[in-house]
Amino acid sequence: MRPFALVLFLLAAPAYGRTLDLSGIWDFRYDPAGSGEAAGWQGSAAANGWTKIQVPGSYNQAVRNNILYQGKAWYRTTFNTQLKRGERAILQFDGVAIRSKVWVNGALAGEHLFPYTSFEFDVTSLIKPGLNQLVVMADNQLLKDAIPDLSCTGWWNYGGINRGVRLQVVPETFAGGLSATTRMTPNGWDFQVNATLTNRATSAISATIELRLLDSRGRSVWNHTGEQKIAPGDTRLQVAGTRGSIAAWSPESPTLYRLTMEVHSGGSSFETSAPVGFRQIAVKGTQILLNGKPVFFKGANYHEMYPGDGMTLSREQVRKDFADMKAMGANFVRLAHYPQAEQVYELADQMGLMLWSEIPAWQTRAEVLGSDEVWNSYGAPQLREMIAQRRAHPSVVVWSVGNEFPSEKEPVKHYVERATAFVREIDSSRLVTFASDRRERDISFDSVDFIAINEYFGWYYGAIPDLAANLDKLHEKWPGKPIVVAEFGSEGILGWKNPAPVDRGMDYSEDYQMKLVGSHLKYIFDPARKSFMAGALLWVYADFPNPSAFQRSPAHPPMAAYMNLKGLVTDDRRHKRVWDVVRASFSEK
Prior knowledge:
The longest helix is centred in the middle third of the chain and has 19 residues, at 372-390. Helix content is 18%, strand content 35%. The protein folds into 3 domains: 23-163, Jelly Rolls (Sandwich); 172-281, Immunoglobulin-like; 291-588, TIM Barrel (Alpha-Beta Barrel). It has helices spanning 59-62, 315-327, 342-351, 366-369, 372-390, 410-426, 466-477, 510-525, 578-588, and strands spanning 6-10, 18-21, 24-31, 51-55, 72-81, 87-93, 99-104, 107-112, 119-122, 130-139, 165-171, 173-185, 188-199, 205-214, 220-230, 233-243, 257-265, 268-279, 281-284, 287-290, 293-294, 297-302, 332-335, 354-358, 396-403, 431-436, 451-454, 483-487, 533-538, 544-545, 563-564. By secondary structure, the protein is α+β, with helices and mostly antiparallel strands. The strands form 6 sheets. It has an 8-stranded antiparallel β-sheet with strand order 15-14-17-18-1-12-13-16, with no helix packed on it. It has an 8-stranded parallel beta barrel with strand order 22-23-24-25-26-27-28-29, surrounded by 5 helices. The two termini are 25 Å apart. Helix 2 runs parallel beside helix 3 and helix 8 (510-525) packs parallel to helix 9.
């Protein structure tokens, strides 16, 4: 059994201070020629050529006359602020697709290369009292040598400021990266709180640090107060503690605590807090263990998309989706195929759904994954950002380094080995894998914690019963690892019927979808495979736009053009009949 460190997981929470929410109506314009920066748009206040758009939001949805647009687009707004002596202004973005450059009052604040992770810039030196101009250039053009690369056509390439934007005002001394590793002992838990203390002053200061762990009723179950010398720059803080009885987090009982941290220095104070969940995920032989007991992943893949909203879902929409999956009997959601918004992870923590979070290395070419330059610029940094920003969540039990890339090739095997080692170096408390569509031809499974396969027997190839033998063949080839079916399913158009579906072929009826899904679940849950099967994740929870992969398929009905219709529910969340098939199967497992 490879041990996994037990971790006290801390949810991200707004820090104490003034926060200016910058969402709302911004100026917007396309830049198909890529000439905006040379023309000085980053510093211009001219109205000509600009229109209005909602932020956050996907411009592919908001500006419908250019829904397939790929390239540069510009956003512009103004904000008022007044900094007091000793305060810092931090500009925070939750996600801009794909690459972005940010200017404040015409001066470059910084750049970011990834579409689905958050980033921030200290803009204290760039802002002025009163009115300030903020300009963002977003570029959703896929690149040949990047992650994602040109092969990434599995979902709509929604561009723009898809997630929230804010200006956070903090004192010169503040804290971030609050987390704690824990270790279960016969008498309870030992744990270590970790944080980064930042001092923006030019000399060292002394600070008082106060930590408290509160239960759901607000009662303190642990506290610590200490003095800390903080040099200019960043200082690591580590505080050890112990606690006897504590309630663990699980899908059946998603118990959350709250950790508060206060930093007092001179005449300023900074406070942050985070919900906390205790849990352990591990692999022992061919079983996955949650809190020391075998667990089976039951659930579906989830795209962060809704008609008319693109990737900018409301918190209530995500809550409804997760409640529907829980009602279906799910305990697990695979986030396909990118880090999703903070609210997704928060709701999974609260509602008791385990999560799989991965970077968008979707069908990325072997030569790209094998490139040191791509690894250094897009692979390692993107993994680091995802883990740093989402490791606080007890719901996250799996980090994934990609999906359906050519893992039967040596350069990809090298990538998987390098990426899994890199992830474990940052966070040894979770499982690491990738999803393979090469199945028994794969040569990259040795370094992962469990085998995850995407299979479409009876849809794209083969017949429905072929899955059974394939699962047995996988187990024979890798007898020491658990197996999770990370994707399976078929298209199904609401209301289409076929009273006598056969065992193969692209039959778009709900009857065939029910037959394929029901049969595959039976093979996965077969008692003869109980010793090594560890998960069944349907593709996909809801139908979603897929403009590239299906427009060329002659079998895809015209009424379904530009859509992936393998959902258990429609894109507007109407149940298909297959939803009940899944619920019945999950309830028996």
